[in-house]
Design goal:
The protein contains five helices and 15 strands. The protein is α/β, with parallel strands linked by helices. A hairpin with a 4-residue loop joins strand 3 and strand 4.
């Protein structure tokens, strides 16, 4: 991923998965037990994270991404946006944050300071996402300010854990070979996430790769096993 304030390079294995486009490019929500989730950067042709819009009493965007069409995509689904939750401040997650704030004037929650932050998001804080209550779990390693968000049945994992990214399928983790990153801290973060994640979590919305529905704990456990090997994630590291 990128360092702070710069756009990311397209590292092997961390490109977004190939996306199907169905005219008129309106994406029906992914319905879980209690959430309507829209992947609003799905049509991006440039490098970006996965940004997720969760509708409900308090419409919430998890990460703003780097897709120039994100405002129009959000407006296809909601009129107002209550808040933006930032998992971490790598460029592919926050490049469009200024545009989102200009368009909707939402509250902005982030762990580290940011000119647009209105609320600090600390470990153990509770925040409403759509209609559901989520806990913030501090998960550094891929980024020093990384937080994940977990509820009784869903996980927004940012880049600490992903389902698939070209390096591994069915359980992978964010790279840790760049400045400010640490494999040791990432391993500890995944362990902490497993301890605090309820057994019933069945939806995983990661910052890259595919959305996953099923046994999320098993995916996170596989990611932990692979991260614990301490081997380079990609051959060119």
């Amino acid at each position: 991923m990128c360092t702070y304030g710069t756009l990311p390079q397209k590292f092997p294995g961390e490109l977004a998965v190939e996306r199907e486009k169905t005219p008129p490019f309106y994406h029906a929500p992914v319905v879980t037990d209690s959430m309507d989730v829209v992947h609003v950067t799905r049509d991006a042709e440039t490098f970006t994270c996965n940004a997720y819009l969760v509708d409900g009493d308090e419409p919430t965007l998890v990460d703003a991404g780097a897709y120039g069409g994100v405002i129009e995509e959000i407006r296809r689904h909601v009129d107002d946006l209550e808040r933006v939750l930032v998992t971490h401040q790598h460029g592919d997650h926050v490049e469009q944050l200024d545009a989102v704030v200009d368009a909707f004037d939402p509250d902005v929650y982030a762990f580290d300071d940011h000119p647009l932050r209105t609320h600090a998001l600390g470990d153990g804080d509770r925040v409403q996402v759509g209609d559901d209550d989520f806990e913030a779990v501090f998960t550094p390693g891929h980024a020093p300010d990384h937080v994940s968000l977990v509820s009784d049945d869903a996980l927004f994992s940012g880049d600490v854990v992903v389902h698939d990214d070209g390096a591994f399928d069915d359980g992978s983790f964010g790279r840790t070979d760049m400045a400010g990153q640490s494999r040791e801290r990432l391993v500890g973060s995944i362990r902490e996430l497993l301890e605090r994640m309820p057994a019933g979590v069945e939806g995983m919305y990661a910052g890259h790769g595919s959305v996953f529905h099923g046994d999320v704990r098993a995916v996170v456990e596989r990611a932990l096993e692979r991260a614990e090997r301490r081997e380079p994630k990609y051959p060119d590291e």
